[in-house]
Design goal:
- By secondary structure, this protein is α/β, with parallel strands linked by helices.
- It contains 15 helices and 25 strands.
- Strands 1, 22, 23, 24 and 25 form a five-stranded mixed beta sheet that branches. Strands 2-15-17-16 form a four-stranded mixed beta sheet. Strands 4-5-3-14 form a four-stranded mixed beta sheet, with helices on one face.
- β18, α11 and β19 form a beta-alpha-beta unit.
- The N and C termini lie far apart (47 Å).
- The relative contact order is 0.15.
- The structure holds uridine-diphosphate-2(N-acetylglucosaminyl) butyric acid (EPU).
- The site of uridine-diphosphate-2(N-acetylglucosaminyl) butyric acid (EPU) has 25 residues, from α3, α6, α7 and α13.
- Uridine-diphosphate-2(N-acetylglucosaminyl) butyric acid (EPU) binds next to α3, α6, α7 and α13.
Length: 453
């Protein structure tokens, strides 16, 4: 078992991380700490979304399962990818990030021996860092991983990850903010998740691919990003069936050589695509969003259609046309295929200018409300009633100085600014850069007036 002092030896202080990223990845868009949005202006044109943040980070973690060079294409230029690259480097890998072009590739070179320690300072910057636990256990039989950080939506425990791993024979304890885990031999078992947790499903999948015998994960998450991970692992030589369903069956492969490095292209980001649809819903106009599978957004597109947005899909593009004020609607966030919790702030911003009274009911995270006061500053009429947000739409919002509290809420404030009169300044833009590549440039290509300062 690695000692905490070894972890301390590779610790990176919080304050160093952004400058470290900026130095290592000079082309990354970290310029300016605010978005300045001058509205209102209708949107028109086409915008391409990159691969999904919530897939690529897990694929990067999965590379730890086998030695060799992996090429991952359609990678978004976001800071969380830079953080995961830093984490993999701390573990012993060489990572080359993509150049500035849309849909670039990253290369991960995994050595014969890895250091199964994920240090705080990097890990506590983002939630997906916990996903190295499963692969490290599969590869080394031991892991020391700092407790993960990420957006603050209230408590975000990892009990389901640890309970599931225990079913595979893993012993784990948490000491001083680090999970220390070890296993003599991973052994397949049946795991029934209390809730279809995305992160727990993925961690368990990555451990189970090397377990002796068969593992069944029941009530597994069905998100397209989980299916993308299954596809990646199966290409590597894993034997997973049931991808995209609530029951995953994994026949463990018993020797390291059975898993091989692969090339893979990341599934398109349905949350980023939905952000542009919400943007045109607020700003009006006609846009085409490319690079995403419409089936991954079926429930959302149906609801937006009910609100009056004209939506049609062709291959990997979605055309959306909004000629006037949309009607209000009621949304409820649910695990996939329901409306994603990540869309909640974007939908609240959309409903803030829709005609009538609408609501968004949150069923996943207790405290995903931290942008509401800022939308109120912009004139939105919003009431919180337990886990429901009730919004009475206004003809128009007004510009204000607001602050991004997390990735999606930050993006929601930016798109709210598109429909507001005057200059909206959204500070703490680094949150938005964690999940959106070139948001300002892409909105400007649609005719918006957004700058960074
Ligand atoms: N939960 C537990 N115990 C666990 C794990 C989860 O109680 O061990 C609870 C959570 O507290 C939450 C619910 O289960 O109430 C769902 O959490 P889940 O594990 O599914 O979420 P996650 O894996 O931590 C991912 C995304 C989030 C997204 C959620 C839900 C990544 C890196 N993050 O988080 O994305 O909101 O799934 O779909 O994949 C974002 O991209 O902005 C973002 C926050």
């Amino acid at each position: 078992m690695p000692q905490m002092t070894r972890a301390a030896g590779v610790m990176v202080a919080d304050s160093q991380v952004m400058s470290l990223l900026a130095a290592d990845v000079p082309e990354l868009d970290l310029a300016g700490h605010s978005f300045v949005v001058r509205g209102p202006s209708p949107l028109e044109g086409a915008v391409e979304v990159s691969g999904a943040k919530n897939s690529v980070l897990k694929l990067m973690a999965a590379t730890l399962l086998a030695e060799g060079a992996y090429r991952i294409a359609n990678v978004p230029r976001i800071t969380d990818v830079g953080l995961m690259a830093e984490l993999l480097r701390a573990i012993g890998c060489k990572v080359t990030l993509p150049s500035r072009s849309v849909g670039g590739s990253l290369i991960v070179e995994v050595p014969a021996e890895i250091e199964p320690v994920a240090p705080s300072g990097i890990v506590d910057q983002f939630r997906a860092s916990i996903e190295v636990l499963g692969p490290m256990l599969a590869r080394c039989g031991e892991a020391v991983v700092a407790l993960p950080g990420g957006d603050d939506f209230g408590p975000r425990p990892i009990d389901m990850h640890l309970q599931g791993l225990a079913k595979l024979g893993v012993e784990a304890e948490t000491v001083d903010g680090y999970v220390h885990a070890r296993v003599q031999e991973l052994t397949g078992g049946t795991i029934r998740l209390d809730f279809p947790s995305v992160g727990a499903t993925e961690n368990l999948l990555m451990a189970a691919v090397r377990a002796r015998g068969t593992t069944v994960i029941d009530n597994a998450a069905r998100e397209p990003e989980v299916a993308d991970l299954c596809e990646f692992l199966n290409k590597m030589g894993a034997q997973i069936s049931g991808s995209g369903s609530g029951t995953l069956t994994i026949n463990g492969v018993d020797h390291a050589e059975a898993l091989q490095p692969v090339d893979h292209s990341v599934v398109g980001d349905r949350i980023v695509a939905a952000t542009y649809l919400a943007a045109v819903g607020i700003a009006t106009g006609e846009i085409v969003v490319t690079g995403v599978d419409r089936d991954h957004m079926a429930v959302l597109c149906g609801k937006l259609g009910d609100m009056g947005m004209e939506i049609s899909a062709d291959g990997d593009s979605i055309r959306a046309c909004v000629s006037g004020r949309l009607s209000s609607a009621k949304f409820s966030t649910l695990p996939y295929p329901g409306v994603a919790t990540d869309l909640k702030p974007l939908l609240v911003a959309l409903l803030a200018t829709a005609d009538g009274v609408g609501s968004v009911t949150e069923n996943l995270f207790a405290e995903r409300f931290r942008y509401v006061d800022d939308l109120r500053l912009m004139g939105a009429d919003i009431r919180i009633d337990s886990h429901h947000v009730v919004i009475e739409g206004k003809e128009r919002l007004s510009a204000a100085k607001v602050k991004a509290p997390d990735i999606r809420a930050g993006a929601a404030l930016v798109i709210a600014g598109l429909g507001a009169e005057g200059e909206t300044v959204v500070s703490d833009a680094h949150h938005i850069a964690r999940g959106y590549d070139d948001l300002a440039a892409k909105l400007n290509s649609l005719g918006a007036d957004v700058s960074r300062s």
